[in-house]
Amino acid sequence: MSTSISVPSRAALTGVIAGFLALPAAAATCPAGFPNKPIRFVVGFGAGGGTDVIGRAVANGIEKQQKWTVVVENKPGAGGGVLNSWLKAQAPDGYAIGVNGTDSVTINPAQANVGYEWQDFDYLGSGMQTWYALVALADRPYRDLPGLIAYAREKGRATISVNGVIGEILVKQLAKEYGVNLVPVPGTGAAEAMTAALGGHVDATTQGTLHVAQIRSGKMRQLVSLINRRVPYAPDSATLAEQGSKTPPLESHTFFMTPNGLSPEIKTCLKQAIDEAVNAPEYKAQMAKFDNEALNLGEDGNIEINRRLAAFYKDALGQK
């Protein structure tokens, strides 16, 4: 599943790139002679989508800060799986960097034998966390998760359009926890799930950030934050834990990775370059404008999350 981000206009994206022009140069510590040719940022989803926006913004930051040439390409398909299969077969020399999402290395292998696991890659850092939420039309009679659960008990069920497998798993976990009939309604992605909710065809929807404009306009209400904290655009909307739920929060990050076996020296070099780009004030400000958060978990943080989520999804999807 592609990173869920409010995709900017061409003018806004130009602003992301232009914002890096003000950044001071900060050279990463790299082996002599590296890099001596363009570095490829290969994105696991199509051009113009959220993952692509992040990859291009970080690539432009690195070019300005490090004076490198970074070429961005796209290898979409299979929820990021096409990129992962390709990347696994590349030489671990630091010149091919995948830009993909947590779901691609944790959910995909839990659903089928895709030929790769999360352990097949080295992780250089991440660029963003998606702010997942459960939302509904503002005129619905429930204002939070307990209200939706009570509604489902009274009516016999509640329907929830989902933005992919991650949303479907969340709905099933909540249904199991509370012993109510919560029906996930799958579709082609976040846009279709949002359309169903706006049209009143379902009782609620799981979303990444497509809902933010609707909340700000007053048309929709956030019932619960599905990540591990409250979010700036809906500060009164409590988290799952704050509302008494034991269902784990959703976590989805856009990260940068290479095939296994990257040398420690080149890995350090690339990690520093990515960290400097992601932590630049201009990058953070631009991500905030798109209702997302600039966040670099670092190598260890990505490994910890992938290990934990891979085990969770294999259990949730019936694999051992």
UniProtKB/TrEMBL annotation:
<dbReference type="InterPro" id="IPR042100">
    <property type="entry name" value="Bug_dom1"/>
</dbReference>
<protein>
    <submittedName>
        <fullName>Tripartite tricarboxylate transporter substrate binding protein</fullName>
    </submittedName>
</protein>
<keyword id="KW-0732">Signal</keyword>
<feature type="signal peptide">
    <location>
        <begin position="1"/>
        <end position="27"/>
    </location>
</feature>
<dbReference type="InterPro" id="IPR005064">
    <property type="entry name" value="BUG"/>
</dbReference>
<comment type="similarity">
    <text>Belongs to the UPF0065 (bug) family.</text>
</comment>
<dbReference type="Pfam" id="PF03401">
    <property type="entry name" value="TctC"/>
</dbReference>
